[in-house]
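Input/output pair, single chain:
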Amino acid sequence: MIKYLWSILFILLSHHSVGQNVIKGNVVDGKTNQPVEGATVTLMPANISVVTNVIGGFSFKSQLDKNMLLTVNTLGYAEQAFKLDGTNKTYTLPIVQKPIELKDVTVSTKTGDIYKPISKTDIAMRGVNNSQEVLRIIPGIVIGQHQGGGKAEQIFLRGFDCDHGTDFREDVDGMPINMVSHAHGQGFADSHFIIPETIESVDFKKGPYTASKGDFNTTGFVDFNTRNALAGNTVKLQGGMYNTWRALGMFNLLGQKAKAKQQSWYVATEYRYSDSYFDNPQHFNRFNLFTKYNGKLNERNYLTVSLSTFWSKWNASGQIPGRAVAEGLIGFYGALDPYEGGVTYRTNVNAQLVTSLNNGDLIKNQVYFSNYHFDLHTNFTFYLVDTVNGDEIRQKETRNMAGYKGSYTHTGYWGGIKATTEAGLQVRSDMTNNTGLSHTTDRFITLQQLKLGDITELSLAPYVSETLNFNDHFSMNAGMRFDQFYNKYNNKLTTDETLPGPGIYKANAGTISPKLNFYYQPNSGLQFYLTSGRGFHSNDVRAVVAEHGYQVLPAAYGSDAGVIFKPAKNLLLNLASWYIYLQQEFVYAGDGGDVEFSGKTKRYGFDFSARYQPLRSLYFDLDANYAHGRNLEAAKSQNYIPLAPIWTSSAGITYTAKNDFNGSLRYRFVGDRPGNEDYTLTATGYFITDAVIHYTQRKYEIGLTINNIFNTKWKETQFDTVTRLKGEAQPVDEICFTPGTPFDARLSVSVFF
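Output:
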């Protein structure tokens, strides 16, 4: 299969005409001197346009003339024109930042980044106030926390309960966040090691339509891109209700001489503490440290290196049965097992070298490494199994993850058709030590070891993607990806009921994922698109070896038909209908890799987004989403998909002023949804309103953040669980929940220098 993919690549490249690009250069930020990716550079008077690459590079196949002009246009910068001096050199074009406005947004079909204008305007207008807001930038996504902030959020998107990342892929600066074969569940994606203020941009796409994205890319993916440089230094202090505190510092480590050489190095660090709003104080602690170097080594090579470390420890109230509250055993914010909680930490090293060739082609080489620790105590069923000691469990693992990503991008022409080929190879290795599941009591007493072993998972994935721009109106993209997984489990228990005994078990599996996407743009304010592809998510190694590699990479087939419309200069609309079919629905029990096979499922729905800016200082955003999901192998009255969101929406009004009061008022809405397969249990919806107010000056900023301003009592996460309380004769099947945030106010002071 790998030879087949590289043969396709050779044929594609061989058909590209190779000509020398005479006019070439780089676009850089006028303040930081860092490259600007995605800027449109137009050669005048020929009126030929190209888009800058990841290192700000551009090139034209044209003879040089001193009367020529280069104009640069991109969101967040003033449009500028540069006159060529007639010499054959590499031109550096510095552009000046300006406030982002919707009137500057253009609907472009050349890259297929249909959501990029939305994400860039949202981040600029709304800002990112905490780690949860990072994910909420994505239209249609719903997140929930059922450990009070200490573990990865539960993710809901397009009618999927993605658990903690099973069907949604997350990366930061190209490094995977999702953990394969995790002690708590497949795809566990804890993004809390990202400091929100370091995020420069968020790229996302819904559906399995991108060849460079493999595992977990069922409902879509998100790429968090951290800043390559800081415009200045920042110190921020925040405090609020429930004994909540946060301190942040961001500092440049290099001076003006380094900036002139296009080099930057900064450090950011934060510390958080909160007892939170639960009756059982959370005593939540989190420490983050992040540093990043980005620099131009020479005319052809750019190097980016980052290092981060993260540590978090907390107590948790967990999820509680509704009857425990109704009967007065505990309050709405109470806990039945005060020993729930955990500790986790992760250290990352990430390096990427980008090389630009003489003909404008790009070579990317990236390596990354993570050392990770996870130790979690939970109690879902209380006294269901062990009526004396309770059912508390401990999930624990230590992991080393290492990987490589390499790609080569070539642009050429088939007659008048512009053809861009990207070919890549991705390698990832995960090795865990003593991944375990045990029955415990009072957190520190182990009663029985249920699972214990070492997990080794290696994945290899070559891919190729071809984009053809036929003219200014029509383009298409076709891609192919092959993923091969090598799984090994060293079982250390004789009592593991899923395996015949201790020893090493192996199983391998592979899958092919084709993609095909079309984009049609009749004018600069209208674009139609039709995207389709096959995706998948991998399975826990412990389940893979138990099933001998059979049906462990079920396919997900998806398609989107949508339109992006800009009927007025200050109004942007996006409407898409979508469909996803799963060959096999997996439900992760979250305890030792156990998986329930639920059969074939289908989902369809629509997404609607609107962005409106009637005044420069006033910005409206609205997202509304509908999803219909059913199990195809169950009877009609038994075919609901538990916890699958049906209606979701979010919207806000944001007022911005450069040096004055600014702020936003936002809501989050989730409708009622089925709690189980026959909808006899209901996961109740909620409508929550939040507000942010800032007073901003050039040297400082004072901010007030209020969550749930109307103090609505709501359930953030909900589960259909059979539980038994202490002393109960019979278990009860009902909705268990984690309460959402009540009214919560926090004041912050930031100093800029």
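The chain has two domains: 2-98, 116-752. The helical segments are 2-14, 116-126, 131-136, 256-260, 322-326, 541-546.
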